[in-house]
């Protein structure tokens, strides 16, 4: 008991600068190394190496401790120019050395992230980096494109030289594709240093999504052209950011602070045993991540680590936004503190769920149901996703897109961005029985992401004997729902070229032929790409689809009587008076998943059609008279006056 009181006291009085430690400060005259440990550490050894792996230490130095309450900071300065050398720490608790680690704050590492590297970060800045700035794009205006480096560029059909590398995104063909499509934020799947791809065997095909963190503050080596040279991955990552920024495209980093690749070998455990991980009452490790462990964001030590880490990515790499993997594993306070610590233009969104039960009180978890307590942070809407295509846990189960009844209210909820809207009957929504956002920009609108099946596979799996024509119409219909939603639209890369994953649901380590984009589809289905471009252009040029304000959405977005297989809504004219620069008057959108044509009633007049069947062009593709307007089967219709 006394021990517990003692511990609690110190937890409350934590001096936290230890967590923001600059563990390696280089000058040509000497390099200072620092590492934080628990107060009980007996000794810390620093080993210096010529290489990032193999070879004997050329020097071993004992660090000196400065007690810091519950923790201790250990320091050593080694004289001489160490640039290009590698280092590890080895912390002794009791009689045991924990094993070599680059520490938890390494900014540069050797191959496979086993050793820290002595670098001057200024050497890693590409030309013009000082002038690089985050593009100014409001949260409501974001259009997010989620991609894996290898999916995007590994197939020769991509025509990209730097296949599977950060640098692919600096190539004109890649930039041109993204600009042509119209997306303005690229969400890169985990690109910090992760474990599951062996960086020493890159001549062999290896694939992983990368949700298995090793070094949180260093780019992944397998996406660089030389994982052995520590500055290369850093410089090439920056070149990627710079090229995207030049094209007016933001970069979203997928961050996975909720768990580490393993417990025992993790840098957290090697420096501060059990300090960063949650345990159950019985002493076992909690596993809310579904990956064998979960971190303890509610403890200041982990909370501060996360805050410092995201700030570092913003400052050093000019990252524009963060996607939090399993945000539900983190606590609400941590997420709010991260929000407060970052500039307002940085967009934050996450998965508003966990993969299992967590060892913190349920009411403190950063889950979707608690988003109203996390203003300025967004979460994915599985409501609209599953209402459109069917549930995560059953690929064969169809929904709205198959013409199934019972999904309309969930789609309406997605259209308004999960806000409180008088015409949405939350009692009939698939999952959430009440609104979960304060503002529509807190909801990510999507129908597919890297997880589970992409849209093409899902349509094939859930609608037996689907024809290609039907598949294309339903694909476009689904994305029309996503992109006319008041939430923030999000798409999986390759959907614009009808990608498939050969029917694989969990393709996290599937070979390239499953995960790659086949760019020859661009020639095979040009009308699909054109529709996606047209749809994105429509959204970008018409703020009526992204009001960004719940009051305006309640006032100006009105649902029309639909039926069980059609959702139709009207965005009323007059937004200009509210300061929304919408050039059109009344806008009507009808999403008909039924196998037969339907109709909606609109006031008399002549309207310009901008989206019908498999064409979407905001400049107009014909006119339609008011009164009873026919909505073709299995497609969307949009018109305005
Ligand atoms: Ca790695």
List keywords for this structure.
elongated; Immunoglobulin-like; 23% helix; eight-stranded parallel β-barrel; seven-stranded antiparallel β-sheet; 641 residues; TIM Barrel; alpha/beta; binds calcium ion
Strands in their spatial order, largest beta sheet: 10-11-14-15-16-17-18-19
Shape: elongated
Topology-level CATH name of the largest domain:
TIM Barrel
Name the hetero compounds present: calcium ion
Total domain modules: 3
Q: What is the alpha-carbon Rg in Å?
A: 26 Å
| Main sheet specs | 8 strands, parallel, barrel
Poorly predicted ranges: 1-18
Which percent band covers the strand fraction? 15-25%
Query: How many beta-strand elements?
Result: 26
Q: Helical element count? A: 15
Q: Which SSEs are present, and which pair or pack?
A:
Blueprint: H1 2-12, E1 24-27, E2 30-38, E3 41-49, E4 59-62, E5 64-68, E6 71-79, E7 86-93, E8 96-101, E9 116-117, E10 144-147, H2 149-153, H3 172-181, E11 185-188, E12 192-194, E13 213-219, H4 230-246, E14 250-255, H5 267-271, H6 300-317, E15 321-324, H7 332-341, E16 347-350, E17 378-380, H8 382-389, H9 408-415, E18 443-445, H10 455-462, H11 468-483, E19 488-492, H12 512-515, H13 521-524, H14 526-541, H15 550-556, E20 557-563, E21 566-571, E22 587-592, E23 598-612, E24 615-616, E25 623-631, E26 635-640
Parallel strand pairs: 10-11, 10-19, 11-14, 14-15, 15-16, 16-17, 17-18, 18-19
Antiparallel strand pairs: 1-2, 2-6, 3-4, 3-7, 5-6, 7-8, 7-9, 12-13, 20-21, 21-22, 22-26, 23-24, 23-25, 23-26
